[in-house]
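Lab meeting minutes (informal)
Scribe: AK
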Amino acid sequence: MRVFSHLLALLTLVIPSILAVTLSGQIQFGNLITRETLPVGSKVSINHGERKVWIKGDGSFEISNVDEGEYILEPIIPGYIFNSYFITIESIIPIESNSPINSNSNSNSKSDSEISISSIEPTFIIHIQPFYPSKLPLPINSISLNHPLIITPLSKEDYFINKGGMNILGMLKSPMVLMMLFSAIMLFALPKLTAALADDPEMAKEMADTRARMNNFQSMDLAGSLSNMLAGSSENAPVTNTIQASSGSNTPNRSGANAGGKKRRGR
């Protein structure tokens, strides 16, 4: 009984390793990265840190006991930018069929066919393609990258931002520059505008009055402004009184005429 239990435990440990895959790859050295410049602590991650494996000094790596499914492989090498890969592992169990036909030439009896089916160790399809977060992965029947995977760095990480040059259009969009341009235009245009208005006496007088009122308001001379307003209303009052007087003298008094007529009739 103990032997059977030990055998069962051994099978539980061996069967998962048989039904799993070992993913392997190699960092391609070149002008961008060499074996000497490979940073210490470089590793490969699966599914955003679910499993991590260190990269060896020669640039190779192996991820053992990878079950069937879909994975995202990310090289994590400080100072360098690599592309991520979408890996699909699918198992296929082939069936080997042998159908020997045993026939007896001396007899007219029907031949009996014997088919022996023997299952073989499953084989795995490893489909590798570049991973793009904004795109759907290609189906497994599409073209795949080779396995073991050859990983090539895209570029070095560069955190330095070049200083931008002089941009005239950007300067014109600045509020300070716009205010300066407006002030310069008004500096040259305002004297010409005032000179043109000086030729018209009525317009010049109106502008002078408006400027005087604005100066009073700006100097907080409320008493003077109020007196000017009252003076303007008093000047308009005699004109209205004379108009009313003239209009009253021209209109006859109908009530007096009617009264005089009645008196004359009474006499």
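Next up, CB showed the second protein from the same session:
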Amino acid sequence: MRTRLDAGRGRAVADRSETEPSPRPALDRRKSMNTNGRDGLRSLIIWDPLVRLAHWSLALATAVAWWTREHNYALHVDTGYAVLAIVVVRILWGFAGPRHARFRSFAVGPVTASRYLADLLRGRAARFVGHSPAGAWMIFMLLATLLACCLSGIALDAAENRAGPLAATRLFYYTEQIAAIHIWCTHALEVLVPLHLAGVLAASLAHRENLVTAMVTGRKRAPADAGKR
């Protein structure tokens, strides 16, 4: 009788082993997780070289232009033209560049940006592979303000010094108005830049990811298909 029962159990175990897959060892799952990165994400190139180069060169040129506004007028003008060139390149790249460089990939409405900021303050903001809604609005505001600052600077140089590409115009009639616009743009940048830095710090802490390093290396944790065009 016992031999018959043992044989029956053996057949049952054998049948079960043929129909049920064997569980994967916990060590294999850990290895798989380490291969893909935290939360199953991989480290991928998100920011292309031109985006990174434009970002850091624009930051440097803007800082130099701001610092020399009262100390070295010639250098101030030269770096202003450099800022204008970088802004134009970045705007063009926002339409022709790869996926995460294109404006349409991160353009959102003000309500979405406001909700993201509110969630960020509460410590439960969603993580974005590319620019966050608040980051997207900051990019648009910075580019628009820098463009206005550069154009008003060129106009002011023509009005005050009869220099630059607009030297032959009669902009000297509007010197005070142009100067007011240029000064206003400068003050706007003095507000936007610290807000931008604060936002980068807050998002880095909230998502436990160094966004400054990401803009240097171009790499962020993302799904495998996030880096595709």
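CB comment: The beta strands are 42-45, 219-222.
No objections, moving on.
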